[in-house]
Amino acid sequence: METFITVAVFVVLLFLFLYLFPVGIWFQALISGVHTSIVQLFFMRFRKVPPTVIVNNLISASKAGLKLTSNELEAHYLAGGRVGSVVNALISADKANMNLDFKTATAIDLAGRDVLEAVKTSVNPKVIDTPPVALIAKARVTVRTNIKQLVGGAGEETILARVGEGIVTSIGSAVTHKQVLENPDSISKLVLSKGLDSGTAFEILSIDIADIDVGKNIGAQLQMDQANADKNIAQAKAEERRAMAVASEQEMKAKAQEARARVIEAEAEVPKAMAEAFRNGNLGIMDYYRMKNIQADTDMRESISKPAGKPATPAGK
Questions:
Q1: What does the DSSP assignment read for 198-228?
Q2: What is the pLDDT of residues 234-249, one digit of tens each?
Q3: Could you please report the per-residue DSSP string of the chain?
Q4: Beta bridge partners of 259
């Protein structure tokens, strides 16, 4: 039993020793021509840096003829960088005779850019297809990565926006649509002359117009839309005036009805006033008859003055 416990403790201690002192990784670096001490690998464990990542990338860089140190790779790893991507980018750039140093590569990587993809795009330019610009034209933009402006430079979205703006400006400034269809390369030349890649992470190599659709007269369509909008506004204003006129007419009718009601109410008070005058002795029989004669004369004159077919209005009505 004691022997078993001793063997188990020995095995545990052996695995712990091999983990803290990665002899296999150190030997791999030694036979690959990369000089690193086993003590340094031991301290990498405490700094939470995987020795395998550092050593493997040091070996790759050494075989490619690059001079990198474990301290540089370890510092970049601790900063949150992608060590493998940086080393592969440096190897690719060196093989392509590109001037890319370790400091620039790590800066690009820490900025969130894919430095390896940037090197590939710089060596092998890629084509960006722009969406149809205002249903007029579609272009294919060939770009190459500008390593010097990759940190802080604008991306593909800015390139596409600038190219689209240049296409619209070029087509809009043409005298006729036929001119654009006959010389589509004039659009590319005019757009390229504007320096659209200024301040971006790319260098525009060419702009090729893939498709042009100018059969639709955009200016005429805009004028038609504006005319329809003006017509709708005029109809709305006319409807508003009609509604106001109807409301005004209804208000006048209401006032007229109110006035007629007051006249009828006043006429209803006349017999009461006459009866009161009779009772008080202020109006006599002869006065009443004279008033009736005057009303009769008035009715006769109105009937004579009215055209034929219109009944006379009784006096006092």
A1: TTBSEEEEEEEEEEE---S-HHHHHHHHHHH
A2: 999 999 889 899 888 8
A3: -HHHHHHHHHHHHHHHHHHHS-HHHHHHHHHTT----HHHHHHHHHTT--HHHHHHHHHHHHHTT----HHHHHHHHHTT--HHHHHHHHHHHHHTT----HHHHHHHHHTT--HHHHHHHHHS-EEEEPPPBTTTEEEEEEEEE-GGGTTT-B-HHHHHHHHHHHHHHHHHTSS-HHHHHH-THHHHHHHHTT-TTTTBSEEEEEEEEEEE---S-HHHHHHHHHHHHHHHHHHHHHHHHHHHHHHHHHHHHHHHHHHHHHHHHHHHHHHHHHHHHHHHTSS-HHHHHHHHHHHHHHHHHHHHHSPTTSPPPPTT-
A4: none
pLDDT at residue 100 in the model? 84
Phi, psi of 271 (to 5 degrees): -60, -35
**Whole-prediction pTM value?**
0.52
The distance from CA 277 to its chain's CA centroid, rounded to whole angstroms, is 88
Q: How far apart are CA 138 and CA 213, in angstroms?
A: 9
Asked if 116 and 138 touch (Cβ cutoff 8 Å), the reply is: no
Q: In what order do the strands lie in the sheet with 126-129?
A: 126-129, 137-145, 202-212
> Does residue 3 or residue 175 have the better pLDDT?
3
**pLDDT score, position 125:** 81
- SS3 state at 294: helix
pLDDT in tens, 203-237: 888 777 766 665 555 556 667 888 888 899 999 99
DSSP assignment letter at 153: -
- Percent of the chain scoring above 90 in pLDDT: 1
Nearest to 201 by CA among 130, 144, 160, 119: 144
Rg (CA), the chain: 50
